[in-house]
Amino acid sequence: MKTLLILVGKTTDKHFQASINDYVERIGHYMPFELVTIPELKNTKHLSEQQQKTAEGELILRQLQPQDTVVLLDEHGRELRSVELARWLQQKQATARRLVFVIGGPYGFSPDVYARAQEQLSLSRLTFSHQMIRLIFTEQIYRACTIIKGEPYHHE
What we know:
Number of helices: 5
Shape: globular
Mean pLDDT: 95
Radius of gyration: 15 Å
Strand order of the largest sheet: 2-1-4-3-5
Helix content: 40-55%
């Protein structure tokens, strides 16, 4: 199973980017994993929040294939503990051909993106910047991979 993480906009903090790259490389030892960055929209001050979500949504949807299992990282999604995420990921590895996670822009997702997704996950009830979520999520995917393999990275 190939796994993608689609991001809207570049990671601007060089420290976050270095750590994200480290986790992406680590994840690659367990499964095919790729980051796909959709460029930020230009001239957004003339767009409403809804117009911005719609435009970003069109760019996200272009990255998807019909058979993809799409999971949105969304504040209203289901929260999982790390061990539960590992079990969930292991189940997806057995059933999904291509698993695609999406971290949207600052205003969330368009209705069309919500309609295309099969699931929504939340990393916390707390609010984090989109830059931080990228790092937290890649670390959690790496942690899930080590849990699946029974490696000592995660401690109960």
